[in-house]
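Title: Prediction job returns without error message
Component: structure pipeline
Severity: low
Priority: P3
Assignee: unassigned

Description:
Job completed but the reporter wants confirmation the result is attached to the right record. Sequence as submitted:
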Amino acid sequence: MPAFSLDPAQTTWCAELSALAAERLKPLADQGEPGRVNRPLVAALGELGLLSRLFEAGALDLCLLRESLARTCTEAETALALQGLGTHPVAAFGTPVQRARWLPEAAAGRAVAAFALSEPDAGSDAAALALDAVPDGRGGWRLHGEKRWISNAPEADFATVFARTTRGAGARGVTAFLVPADRPGLGGEPLDMLAPHALGTLTFDGVPVGPEDLLGEPDKGFRVAMNTLNLFRPSVGAFAVGMAQAALDAALAHTAARPAFGGVLADLQAVSHRVAEMATRTEAARLLVYAAAVAYDEGDPDVPRRSAMAKLLATETAQYVVDAAVQLHGALALQRGHLLEHLYREVRAPRIYEGATEVQRTIIAKELYAKVPPTEVVPTEVPPGERRPLGAPYAPKEPKETTA
């Protein structure tokens, strides 16, 4: 299936999902406490079968799911995404015992999951994390340190935790653990964020973990993290596209009806051209997200580059589109409770989490240059008065020796 062509069943499902989110999920979201886990909302996602679909879906399905929810209820989208982020490592790398214990509960929305990767001094540079896993002498470890900006913390029922089991080994010394919330020494507190998502800290004061808690193999937890992020990065872009589409829809409705200068705002070329730009960027981002998702589902080896491009373009586009929609609405959009006021706060975070924009550019550049065949660069001098050919290497002359 071409990445840019959804079949009628997919299109219909997306429309039904957006309507369902507005009817069933938005009322529950509105009743929740900002910045805290909304368990009735998570349970409703489970009852509607969306969480089980999330754990079984391919990347394209995940993108369609997140985009459709984001158009009408960003809180439901975020609750679903955070649940998926924390649970995917268990689904992909868990033991049969771990999967039997946690996956049915997570899919039903009865158990809330956390993905504990970021730390106060290790966010974008995930390989630099310092949560210490100290051997306990009996084949297990004790975890010491802190995680920050963690999904659903500290209220989650279990967490995928990444800790350093080998010091000085960078990414090769990281191990993933499944840590239930009732482990002694585990604490934390919620964080008050610009967009009131359920994020917080987790503190580890000698939290015990054993071989039965491993997700994957010791010192190979970075693979668990990257496998999860490569799947979810295009869908972060889908979340952004959903918000951009919601802002675009609002801008179209407002500018088509708002009286201005003897007509409506849409009659002004500056306004209609801005809306055209918003629509074009949104569609371009959507297509890039779908292309990245299809590449993941088909096992394309170019997934890291495509995922990074999709997240980069979609999140930056959403920021532009939401900001432009606010500008077209004027002061109306700045009132508390307005859709665009809500989106304006929501849209900022995706440019940072799961790899900031700058990190995505680094990934893209690294993947591009990795495919450039090595060549021998021969320095060339340019005679005085002549121009160096475009693209020729620059080689400054060696300074001549001088005597005092």
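Comment from assignee: result matches the submitted record. The chain has three domains: 8-108, 113-219, 223-370.
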